[in-house]
Structures are given as structure tokens and as C-alpha cells.
Amino acid sequence: MDQSRLVDHIETLSKMSDDDFPAVTRVLFTDKDVMARRYIISLMEEVGLDVQYDGMGSIVGTWSVQGSVQDSAVMTGSHCDAIPLAGAYDGTVGVLGGIEAVRVLKKAGFVPYHPIQVIMFTSEEPTRFGLSCISSRVMAGALNGTFLSSLRDADGVSFLQAASKAGYVLEGVVSEDDVVRNASSYAISSFVELHIEQGPELERSKTDIGVVTSIAAPSAFRVRFEGQGGHAGALLMPDRHDAALAAAELALEVERAVLDTGSVDIVGTTGSWSILPGAINSVPRVAELEIDIRDTQADRRDGVISRVKKAAESIAKRRGVDLNFQTLSVDSPATSSPLIVDTINAAATHFNLTASNMVSRAYHDSLFMAQVANMGMIFIPCKDGKSHRPDEYASPKDIAQGVKVLAYTLARLSSDGRPNVTQRDEL
Ligand code: GLV
Ligand code: MN
Ligand code: MN
Asked: Which pTM value belongs to this model?
């Protein structure tokens, strides 16, 4: 395969960003996201995929041939939206790598028995609507029209309004129920996602390929404290009800509750803060936090969540501020299909690559795809384990190896046991 072409595609995409290179900021349905979507469509068309988008605006390129079995596609892909000040590789490697895998398979003369599809999901990142993996949740039947219609961005814009402004609403779609109906009727037997590891394990152990066996259980919360603001000079300390201090206490409690479990497999992050009025000489009146808590064990995570909730209530009471504790998502962990785990390992052996089974601590659209298809994930190393930051990096060699393993895996799954290119040493 042509490593430099893929690297070129990644670089081109990384410049479709609201922040300067190497930082990538590409939030759902912004102009840069729309530009990226057009680019992905053009690349899919270039390799001969039949491209469509669904009710959620997910872009799907299909490769099927006459006589192929239409009712159970093998799907691959990931996302191209990027959190503020992210890097160039999170998600994009899976979308661009999926397109490249199709090119590799076509060149090798592969003929799909089950169709192969490459998808670019809508809004894996929760940046705009506070909810992660929005389109894969819909595909899994885990998000209905009523819930979708309740989502608002920071400016009060709904998903449907944002999709419509970006030009991603299908004809005849007038409500969120229509959106969901138009995005949940896939017939997929398997879903395989190629992704950078986003952690340091593969690089540290000098392993080429990570084979994901399960995905940790994520959860997300929005907490709003509302107190009373006032003049920073004139409002005396005994009279204050400072919302930001309540928030600060809660963030520390998140850390304490996680550490008290004594496990390194649970993590808690208070990554989003918004303070009103946000002036140096004004006592904070409102503080809104977003908290992310994840664990490989859902029950231990749930224990931490209840401790954090109780802490929020007692902090609010003691400080005399109002509390609104909103659960954005509490998701179950996912388990990979043993067949796909075996196939990815066989692919690594085929290409003389080292591989090791591992847990995904980050979430991915695969978390939801596992509810409707056999799921598997291929991880490649990323430099120093850095991700969700501008210096995120994966080497062209590691990306190319991931694509080859993906192509092999797709070929085997699409062939369903029939003879195929993977047995003829042509990949
Ligand atoms: C995905 O971006 C995650 O936060 O795990
Ligand atoms: Mn991400
Ligand atoms: Mn990702």
C-alpha cells in the first residue's frame, strides 16, 4: 500500500480545523466539519464506494458486487470530529484507514461475499451536544427521537437544526423520530474499528498491534451550582454563596472517590468548567462542570457515581447554593467478538507483527456497535501515549500496519469462511 498517500490524507484533513496546525478542532456540523465530510465523501468515491449519508448524517461508503449477500455487511470506520485542541489521528486513522483498506483489497483482486462498508460516524465526541457516540447510539437503538430532540448545544441549537444548517438532513425528515428511523436500519454482521491506542501500553511494550477484547464503561455528568454573585470587594466572606468554590470542592471529591477505590482501572476527570459571570472582581454566581468517570468494572464505577452525587448534594447544602445534577450518559462496557479477536490476531501473525490483547480505556463508536454486531477493534501505538492534544502522533509505519491488519480482517469476515485473498498471500 501507498503509505505516503494515507499520510497525505491525514495531513490534509488535519488542516480542516478551527485551530492552527498541529492543533485540530473540528466540532460537529461546523464549517470545518462540513469541509471534512466533503473530503471524506470524495475519497470514498475515488476508491469506488457507493456513498450515502443517513438520517444522523453518518457517511457510509458501500462496496458490494453483484451476487454478494446483501443482508449482513461487514462495516469498518470511525469518526472525524475532534475535540477542541485535539490531534490529527484520533478517529481519522479509522476512517481514512478504512478507505485505504478497501483500496488495498481491490488492488489484491478481492471480491466481497458480504458487502464491505466504511462509515464516518456523526459526533463520536461529546463536544457540541454533551453526548458521545450520538450516531452509533442511534444505530444500536440506544437513543430515541425524544432524547435526541432534548439535546441542545451551548447556544440552544437542537441536533436537527444543526444538521439542517450543515446540509445533512435527508429529504422528508422533519422530526427527530424521522432522523432516528433513517439511521437505525443497518444490517451489519460485523464491525471492526481501527484506532490509535490513545495510551502508552503498546509503545512501552514494543507491540505493533493491540487487539481490543473489551471497552471500559464510560459515564458523563453535567453539574450546575447556582449561588449568589456580587461585588468582589463589597460582598463580605460570611455572606457569600460562591458557586465556583462548590464546583472546586466537587472536582476534588471526584478525584478522591476514584483514588479511594485503590484501582488504576477507574478514572475520573472534571474537564469542562464554565463560570459566570467570569470576572475577576465578581463573586461567581454560576458554575457548570462536566465530569467523566470510567472504569473497566461498571459496578465499581456506579459506586463512585453515587458517592459523587451525594457529595454534590452535601456541598450545595453547606454552601447554600442550588444544585442541578444531570446524568448525560451511563454506559455499559462492551466485549469484543472472540471470532474477530482471533481474526485480528491471525492477521498480525500473517504479517509477522507482534500483537497483544488489551482493554480499550477510551470509548469508541464500537461500544455501541457491539450491541448490534460482532465487534472488534485494532489498536496501533501512538507516540508517548498522547491523545486529545495537538502533539498526538502515530507513525506512517504503524498506521500502514494497522491498515493491512484491517484489510485482512475485513476480507476474512466478508468471505465468511470461503477461500479469499488472505490465503493467497496477496495482501
Ligand atoms: C473518546 O474520545 C473518549 O473520550 O474516550
Ligand atoms: Mn477522541
Ligand atoms: Mn476516537
From this structure: 0.96
